[in-house]
Amino acid sequence: MTIDPSKISTSITPFAMIDKHSALPREQEILFTMHSVFRIVEITQTPSNSRLWEVQLTITDESDPQLAGLTDCIKEEIDGRGWHRIGKLMLKVGHFDQAEELYNELLKGASTDSDIADIYHELGRVRRDRGEYPEAVKFCEKSLEIKRKTLSEDDVSLAGTYGNIGIVYKNMGEYSKALEYYEKSLKTREISLPPTHPDLATSYSCIGGVYRNMGEYLKALE
């Protein structure tokens, strides 16, 4: 483990050498705060035992530009408020059962069409990520039905649900349906977003991926 005090802010990530307070005289012990972050530098197999691996770590903090960029990216992916944001974080780390339980509880107390539509969308993501594709489509279609009644056809939130359904159909191998929903998502984003928005690139990439899976490589390159 490497600690370079010049590269971190000790006010943000304090640590202390506590060798003198250890019960074992030869023990070299360092106490870190709970929110300390470490970068994995290298992982090597120990020569004496093939079942053991040595992990080299270096401490870092939010002043690290790479960590800051990663943090900002995760914040964008789990946007939202309160419990909704926690549900997205659970999905991000693969805790699908807990996310589903949370969203079902939120659904019981949801009072607006917007909240209900968003919860159905996230429940669709839960089922999608668990590979339960028919159920995923049902939840996404419920979300879409509510959004179409309450929002304009070019509202950007529709694009996410269209895209989610597209992902499900792609995973099911139903490429024509996947294209249909990906193109709807793209059309909505082209109307609602500036031409350089990264979500447009996501839509183009998804459409290209479907054409690639269909073996239509020239269209995929477009």
UniProtKB/TrEMBL annotation:
Name of the protein in its database record: Uncharacterized protein
InterPro entries the UniProt entry points to: TPR-like_helical_dom_sf, TPR_rpt
Keyword Thylakoid attached: no
Swiss-Prot/TrEMBL keywords: Repeat, TPR repeat
Signal peptide location: none
Spans of repeat TPR: 80-113, 117-150, 159-192
UniProt KW Coiled coil keyword: no
High-level lineage: Eukaryota, Metazoa, Spiralia, Gnathifera, Rotifera
Organism: Rotaria magnacalcarata
